[in-house]
Amino acid sequence: MQDQLAKSCDEPLTDRTATGLAGSQGRVAELVGKTAAVTGSTSGIGLGIAEAFAKAGMKVMLNGFGGSAEINATRARLEKEFEVDVAYSSVDMTKPDEIVRMTEDAKRQLGTIDVLVNNTGIHHVEAIETFPVAKWEAIIAIDLSSPFAAFVLSYPQ
Fold first, then answer.
1. Mean pLDDT, 10 residues at a time, the chain of 157 residues
2. Contact between 58 and 84 (Cβ < 8 Å)
3. Does this model's pTM top 0.90?
4. Which of 41, 62, 94, 150 could disulfide-link to 88, CB 3.0 to 4.6 Å?
5. Phi-psi region of 128 (alpha: psi -120 to 50; beta: other; left: phi over 0)
């Protein structure tokens, strides 16, 4: 088993890229046409992850906060540059009912969620004796509860 794992890790990614498709540079055969939902993907690391999935040929559900014009421009750029479908959900990941809406929208607009990246996260730094309980609850909601809810709701039935 260890030999098989080592061999699969040694295979270059380019050996698995799709060829013969117009504009398919960087596409990964196993991922083309699959769907990725990436939370916290309107900027930073999450956007970088979403871009990598789009480049690989995956449909992408973006999620996060920001200005609607900028987010629409990002969505349109990804669609044009990588020739994939890209949707956007503005749901608040602290609210389970909204997470339900995001997963339902992703499935309706893009198909089964094949990859879920729980990238949303927040932090707050303060001395423990003055650390606000509301901040603690928000951290737990975003960093622990929302990934669990998104996973459960995205899991194939």
1. 39 45 68 96 96 97 95 97 97 91 94 94 95 96 92 84
2. yes
3. no
4. 62
5. alpha
